Model the fold of this input.
Amino acid sequence: MQWVQEYNPLGNILLSAFVAAIPLCILFYMLAVRRAKGHLAALAATGAAILLAMVFWGMPAELALDATAYGAAFGVFPIVWIVVTAIWVYNMTVESGEFEIIKNSLACITEDRRLQAIFIAFAFGSFIEGTAGFGTPVAITAAMLVGLGFNPLYAAGICLIANTAPVAFGAIGIPIVVAAKVTDLDLMTISRTVGRQLPLLSLIVPLWLSVTMCGFRRSLEILPAILVAGACFAGSQFLVSNYMGPYLPDIVSAVVTIAGLGAFLKVWQPKSIWRFADEPAATQARATCAYSRTEVIRAWLPWLVLALMVFLWGLEDIKNFLNSIFALSFEWPGLHDAVLKDSPIAATDTSYPATYAFNFLSAAGTAILFAGLIATFILPRYGLGKATACFGRTAFQLRYPIMTIAMILGLAYIMNYSGMSSTMGLAFTLTGPMFPFFSPILGWLGVFLTGSDTSSNALFGALQKTTAQQIGVSPELCVAANASGGVAGKMISPQSISVATAATRLVGHEGDLFRFTLFHSIAMVLVMSVLTLMQAYTLRWTLP
Done:
């Protein structure tokens, strides 16, 4: 017997939508006001969603719990699997001492603080975002900039601003994968659409960083380098997202930007070196390039192997071959086709499927696992024994983020299967043709609440799709706008600010950092809102 979703249980769509938003309000309160730990906030919000689904939407208890468990399972695999393996590779490079060589190689390229910020916060941070995500790039790059002599507040703020362009394709493309999963839209179409929005932001972020640091006039002194960095990143991001998929845009764009800007700076340098006015005299000295070319290449090699493995795993032929060896897929017990979507969400009565795939060998996280195993033969004085112990420590280190991701996905799925997300989507249709303008803002709000573009897409992806279908615009555009707008919310999310202050020893100055980034966050999301509105009506030719 099927249960039919209810979209207006209180007889008034606005009132119903307000009740449906209560779990999100709890999440906001717990994170932004109470500053609760992420897993506790997610637990409270998920519990509230289950209760509301049963009491107001009339969802049977067994279905509500089943939908939540289904979402949590998807959170564990493949999402958590990617996070654990990626951070494991990073931790191995730190433990082996090779990460110090990477830091030194970047510092030796230029003495100019503006160019160092573009290299480390923008380009290298994008590389880390592409491989690990989930706060890792801000922590790493902010610590690196402080180590180079940056003012801690500027180091933290600049890294948060820089960590916008790559966020939608972060952690091996997981935000886009989740958006496609929760909406049942084509993965490549969403990837291509995001890849035709974010490059605009990527093109201007290097200039944005420099202007933030020293003003527009002084930024003109390094304009050639800014143009090279922006063009390398935006061009690569567009090409990879449109022709290869969502897994490698950040990694490839970062590598191209580092190589392109590095090569450019060998033949061009600014006439005057810019540093912070209050820098101590010790930081005025030129960085000593203490490592040979062979040592630098060896330090970077594990990350290059990782990029290669993820690229190979993304090829359809290899993916099909690995799935032919082992692939497990089954209908989720008690939930598959047990929920019926009807009008106005679906044109005709449609069963809501629930199929879980455990394609271990072809998963992106497994590609990273193999890259890490190969790295054990590259890293000096490092073997399988140390790597295994490091993996255990990494999993323990991530125990709370793992719980948070699982519960946030559980929250998303109970809201989707109960009809709560659809209820809020129907309320947003009241904005009429202006909804595409608000699509990025909704994603921005989601990332502010959860600290993750992945979680925001899980929460609001179905809502974006529903609303777009109701008003007659491309659902792929609005779902993509959720991801593209969400990147601007990362810099003001409580989790990101906490990570940045911890990395720069600014704990207790969270309010200062929030004020530092707030204007930039609002300005960037408004840029994406205007672009999305134009793509919905006057620039439709830009869509895939």
Remarks:
- The first strand starts at residue 3 and ends at 4.
